[in-house]
Write a structure and sequence with these properties.
The protein is built from 13 helices and twelve strands. The chain is an alpha/beta fold. It has three domains: 90 residues, Winged helix-like DNA-binding domain superfamily/Winged helix DNA-binding domain (Arc Repressor Mutant, subunit A), CATH 1.10.10.10; 135 residues, D-Maltodextrin-Binding Protein, domain 2; 95 residues, D-Maltodextrin-Binding Protein, domain 2 (3-Layer(aba) Sandwich), CATH 3.40.190.10. A five-stranded mixed beta sheet has the order 4-3-5-12-6, with helices on both faces. A three-stranded antiparallel beta sheet has the order 10-7-11. It has a two-stranded antiparallel ribbon with strand order 1-2. A hairpin with a 2-residue loop joins strand 1 and strand 2. Helix 2 crosses helix 3, helix 2 packs across helix 5 and helix 3 crosses helix 4. The N terminus and C terminus are likely disordered.
């Protein structure tokens, strides 16, 4: 009796059961699978009838797995992991740099740094098509949600390999019309100004902690959940605030109100999965980006001709540690 039942199971059946378990409802599972609700309901009934068991308990609050349902979801997860691992290994054995390359990064890096570099890359490698996925949260490279991640982080995931391309410096900025003599600004008086700041979802960043600890809550007049809009907010006079130097320094209407604060800096990483590190399209992309970003390293690290002090400021222990980290994660 067991043999005919086994023949009724297919990968699509496992995917459907796993989607229902993850979503805990049929409508949400249907959305994940790109199906309609009635199709998911019908296929679940067919699977349970073929197996002669119930995989889910139906409650008013949603669907919960039975014991056998949990075993089936565990099986689905193992199969999914094996399929992803196999496709990564195949992708890593390509002969020529061609095909689609999925790249994930955040919106501010894309707009202010990466788009011109991507355009240059396409001219050099027209056979590689870029699929850019914007996400401020890290995607799962193990599941091939992306092939390459370009991230500002001091702690790259241990399961990824790559290189530290630069260190992103941050400084405090205001409008030039409000601060015509920025070098004469009284730093203590700045805390009496209105500030703009990243939102609470960036609360782990040192630059955000600094503002929350040093600036009175009523003085923080504007928060954003993305770096992308910070410069515009400062330019429009909403308040003063910290920006990555490669964004703030190119705005003619903005001036630095303080030198870059090295404790606020963040490493810029180019990352991929270890199975893809030798893929020709991944390798040429990482090599190309690393070389182009190196040309802009002074701007990214806040070293400008107008700030000789920045050029002579020694790197902090945190930056030296990041260099050591690069060796550990080097591709």
């Amino acid at each position: 009796m067991a043999e005919p039942l086994l023949k009724t199971l297919a990968w699509d059946d496992l995917r459907l059961i796993k989607a229902i378990a993850d979503a805990q409802s049929l409508p949400a599972a249907a959305t994940l699978l790109g199906l309609n609700h009635s199709t998911v309901f019908r296929r679940l009934g067919q699977i349970e009838d073929a197996l002669g068991i119930k995989l889910f308990e139906r409650h008013r609050t949603g669907y919960t797995l039975t014991t056998l349902g949990e075993e089936m979801v565990n099986l689905a997860q193992r199969v999914d992991d094996e399929i992803n691992a196999f496709t990564r290994r195949i992708a890593g054995r390509e002969l020529l740099p061609a095909g689609e390359l999925r790249v994930t990064t955040n919106d501010s890096l894309l707009v202010h740094l990466l788009t011109p570099l991507f355009a240059q890359f396409r001219k050099h490698y027209p056979d590689i098509r870029l699929d850019v996925v914007l996400a401020n949260q890290a995607l799962n490279l193990s599941k091939r949600d992306a092939d390459v991640a370009i991230r500002a982080t001091d702690h790259p995931p241990e399961n990824l390999v790559g290189r530290r391309a630069a260190t992103i410096a941050w400084a405090l900025y205001g409008r030039m019309i409000d601060f015509p003599r920025p070098h004469d600004v009284d730093q203590d008086q700045l805390f009496e100004r209105i500030w703009v700041c990243l939102g609470d979802n960036f609360g782990t960043l040192k630059v955000v902690k600094f503002v929350h600890e040093r600036v009175a809550a009523e003085r923080i007049g504007y928060k954003l959940n993305t770096v992308l809009g910070l410069a515009e907010a400062i330019e429009h006079g909403i308040g003063i605030g910290h920006l990555p130097c490669f964004i703030g320094d190119i705005r003619p209407g903005l001036v630095r109100l303080s030198p870059p604060h090295h404790d606020f800096s963040t490493d810029l990483w180019l990352l991929t999965h270890s199975d893809l590190r030798h893929s020709p399209r991944v390798r040429v992309f990482l090599d190309f980006l690393a070389a182009e970003i190196a040309k802009q390293r002074n701007a990214i690290e806040g070293i400008s001709e107008a700030s000789q002090e920045d050029k002579t400021t020694p790197k902090s222990p945190r930056v030296r540690s990041a260099r050591a980290s690069r060796r550990r994660h080097s591709a």
